[in-house]
Amino acid sequence: MKKYLLRIVFILSISMLYQLSVMAETVWDVQQEIRLDKKPLDTAVSERGTYTFILTDDGTVHIYGSDSKPLGQIDVGRHVDGIACTRDESLLILKSKKNRTVTTIGFDFIRNINIEGSPYKGDPDAPVTIIIFTDYQCPYCSKLSKLADSVFKKNKKNVKLVIKNFPLPMHSYAAPAAAASLVAYKKGQFWEFHEELYKNMAQLNDEVIKEMAAARGLDPDEFLKEMRSAKILELINQDIMDGEDAGVQGTPTVFINGVKLKSRSIKGFQKLIDSELEKKQQ
């Protein structure tokens, strides 16, 4: 019996030594470190990693971007002792053992988006500014453009409509089309080109752009040359950076006074416009 037990111990020892010998070496490094003034109680990270949420012992949820940059905070109360994320990155779950509650809250940020030099229509001092990040080869952008135009006409006295370019890499002529729109803007013909680019999105190329320019009495070769100028390319890159800073991930993306529009419908537009106008009157 003793020999049998010793044999088992020997086999187990050999097995453990073998497992240790084949175990992979662990390599690690610090990806992110956030220093706080208060004691952290819980953390959560949104599904796409866009936001990191940290609940501290003073009842505050601190929100950070993927680059550890602080984006904002929410005072949720000291009764909250746990947090969790939903698939929707604009929702957060608050848990409270004390109150025996689980609460889902919606949140958003007011973005300060640079619109200097961007094409727009309406009163430059209008109380409400609608900013649309668009791609001229995106069919959803084409549909939204018509919708936004209807909203603008209905709210002409109170709204300024601004267009920013956000050409997507998957669309081969989206960036040149954005350049064409900006050259047209310089020549006082932006909105005509804006609509025409959407109409021709399926067949956009240099020849189509030249035809559009010639039809409006512009030198087509000179127009194409201006499209490729460093200044125009710089404006497009600036729009893309402004969009990324505002959290734009696709097109179309709409902001009304810096608040991201979630319901891209007439009703959704009007609700947020009216809400912003009410704030101005308070």
Q: What's the helix and strand layout?
A:
Elements: H1 2-22, E1 40-45, E2 51-56, E3 60-65, E4 70-75, E5 82-85, E6 91-96, E7 101-106, E8 120-122, E9 128-134, H2 139-154, E10 159-165, H3 174-186, H4 190-199, H5 206-215, H6 220-227, H7 230-245, E11 253-256, E12 259-260, H8 266-281
Parallel strand pairs: 9-10
Antiparallel strand pairs: 1-2, 2-3, 3-4, 5-6, 6-7, 8-10, 9-11, 11-12
Tell me what you see in this structure.
The chain contains eight helices and twelve strands. By secondary structure, it is an alpha+beta fold. The strands form three sheets. It has a five-stranded mixed sheet with strand order 8-10-9-11-12. A four-stranded antiparallel sheet has the order 1-2-3-4, with no helix packed on it. The chain has a three-stranded antiparallel sheet with strand order 5-6-7, with no helix packed on it. A hairpin with a 5-residue loop joins strand 1 (40-45) and strand 2 (51-56). Helix 3 (174-186) runs antiparallel to helix 4 (190-199), helix 3 (174-186) crosses helix 6 (220-227) and helix 3 (174-186) packs across helix 7. It is globular and about 90 Å long. The model has no long low-confidence stretch (mean pLDDT 91).
Please give a quick description of this structure:
The protein is an alpha+beta fold. It has helices at 2-22, 139-154, 174-186, 190-199, 206-215, 220-227, 230-245, 266-281; strands at residues 40-45, 51-56, 60-65, 70-75, 82-85, 91-96, 101-106, 120-122, 128-134, 159-165, 253-256, 259-260.
